[in-house]
Structures are given as C-alpha cells and as structure tokens.
Amino acid sequence: MSIYKLEGKSGNARAGVVTTEHGEIQTPIFMPVGTRGAVKAIWHHELKEVGAEIILGNTYHLFLRPGHELIEKMGGLHKFMNWDRPILTDSGGYQVFSLGDLNKVTEEGVRFQSHLDGSYHMLSPEKSMEIQKALGSDIVMIFDECPALPASKDRLRESMELTLRWAKRCADYPLQDHQNLFGIVQGGLHEDLREECMERLEELDLPGLALGGLSVGEKNEEMVDFLNSFTPKMPEHKPRYLMGVGKPLDILNGIRAGIDMFDCVLPTRNARNGQFLTSHGPVNIKKQKFQFDELPPDPECDCKVCSNYSRSYVRHLFTVGEYLGGQMISYHNLHFYLKMVKEARAAILEDKFDDYYKEFYKKYTSERWK
C-alpha cells in the first residue's frame, strides 16, 4: 500500500500527501533538522506555529548521546521529545564519513571513531536499523556509503554497489509496523548510474526514495540540470526526498523538478550567525546600517518576530550576545521556509507554479534590503 497520494501537478512540480502513523504530511514540505532530538533554539510548540509537519532526528548523534537504548526505554523519540507529529531519521552514514577522523569501510559496515571522545564503534546496516527501530521514527533511511568527492565514475559505481548490498540488508531487517524504509539513490551526476541504482532499489519495493550525494561540491547549475532531467523518471506513486539541499532557490528548483521533501540545517545555522532569510534575499542583521532601523526584519513577513520587533532591536541582541537574537531569527527563518513551500503547494494545485516561481525568484534575487 502506497503512503503517498498525488493531488495535483503543475509542470513537473507535484502536490501530494504522505500518510504516516503520526499524521499526514502535505507536500512539498521542508523538514526542520532536530539533530540531537531538538531543532536548535526552537521550542516544539513554535515548530507547530511555523507549520512544521515533520522533523528530522540524527541516528549517529542520538546513538552516541544519549543512546538509542535510553530513548527506547523512555518510550521512543516521539515521547522522549514530546513531538506527536512525524519524524524522519537519517541512517548515520553521512555523519560517519564527515565527522569521523578515522573510519574504515568494509563489507560489514563502517568502523569509526567518535568525534566526542575518540572511542571506536561499528555502524553496519543492521546496527543503523536497530538504532532507528528503537527511536521509532516514521521514516527510516537505509544505511548508505557517502564517498569523498570529487570521485571517479568507477569509484561512484563501487560505492553504489556497496550501498545497494547494504540496502538489501536494511530491507531484510524487521522494523516496527508503523515504520517506512526509504531507499537512497546514489551515483553522483552520472544519470546512467542513478537510473541503474533506482531500478535495483525498486526491486526491494520500498515505500519511498531519496536522492543522496547532491549539494556536496558540484556546481549549482549542474545539480539543477540533473534534477530537471532525472527527477521525472522517479516513481510517481512514491514520495521523493532530496537530502540535505536547503537554500530557498534550491528548494524551489527541486520542487519545479518534482521533488516532494527537503531538509537542511541552513535556516537555523545561518540564524545563529545573524542571517535573516527574507522575501528580498538574505539580510545580515549584524551590519552597522541596521543600528537605527525601525523596520521589521522582513516588512513583508507576518511571523511574530517581524510583527513585534525592529531590525535595530534584533541587531542589539546580537551585538550584546543575547541568545534571544538567534532564537528570533531561527523562528523567522523556519517560518519563511515553511510559508514558501505552503505557497508553492497552493500554486501547484492551481497549476500556476511557474508564475509563483518567477515572482519569488525575481524578488528574492533583488537583494533590496542587503
């Protein structure tokens, strides 16, 4: 039974619904990243205020601290963090390769060194599934290899073959009844490798597919061209997830190509550095020019930050080191992202997505308030 229902299209852009045990997800959707069981600087009720329908948890980090056994004893990740909406957990593969100073890849899995205390651990397909089963997430990602880039086509094929063997082992692992395992299509920018990987993953009949290994060093236009060419070939009856791609225009380009789900740490990470994402492009609130600025951070935004505070005040919070500054911008940036995908969904259902895309692009690149 498919967990995805297509409700409308505008060109290749899609509007649909993903159904899970913990609620429905209206797509296209942006998923805030709650790496360690929390989205940084945001209360859970505020996530609901800004329209978050699903959030992410990170298998690697939750495995190291506080441990999946503890979370399972506390009733699973939903109960542990008091979040009653859907949760997606990544497999831990990316963090093993990006955070581990020393790691060794074998057929069994990856032996890695913790970035916290230097202790050694083994993360295999089965271990990743064990952790994610204990966490109780609604969407579980297969354990894949993330090769260092740039990489030759031969190296990418080798990595793809290993990922496919690991995917089979993940699919054979019994999860909780409510959990949905998503495959990850690898292959770099080589469309033939991606197509082969996707066809072989389809033999496992998984409920969803993700695209991994993008936005990791290739030129932006290369990624956009690839998405436009490849995404329409993905199964129409399954959700399509583009992993870790998160600039506003990248998300809209993904939607335009037919992607349904997105995640990225950018809106909260950049917030902690003082960057407001506004309808007229990014704004660095720390600039001297905003010292006496009485305007809201984004005059066209209706969030509670822009409705109540000035650029001058938020800048002041940053200059004196008050945590509230980062909290305010994090809230606004997530509101901005989720409002953007909600508007995109409405435009798709009216078959006017191209009009919305062009208007958004023109305003966002104007950098009016830079």
Fold and architecture overview:
The chain has helices spanning 44-49, 59-64, 68-73, 77-81, 93-99, 125-135, 153-172, 191-202, 220-230, 248-257, 266-271, 311-319, 323-349, 353-364, and strands spanning 4-10, 13-20, 23-27, 29-31, 55-58, 87-90, 103-105, 110-113, 120-123, 139-141, 180-185, 208-211, 240-242, 261-263, 275-278, 281-284. It is an alpha/beta fold and 370 residues long. The strands form four sheets. An eight-stranded parallel beta sheet has the order 4-14-13-12-11-10-6-5. The longest helix is centred in the last third of the chain and has 27 residues, at 323-349. It is globular, with a radius of gyration of 20 Å. The N and C termini lie far apart (49 Å).
Quick recap of the structure?
The chain contains 14 helices and 16 strands. The chain has 370 residues and is of the alpha/beta class.
Q: What fraction strand?
A: 15-25%
Q: What number is the mean pLDDT?
A: 95
Helix content: 40-55%
Poorly predicted runs: none
Provide the gyration radius in Å.
20 Å
Structural class by helix and strand composition: alpha/beta
Largest sheet: 8 strands, parallel
Give the number of helices.
14
Separation, N- and C-terminal Cα atoms: 49 Å
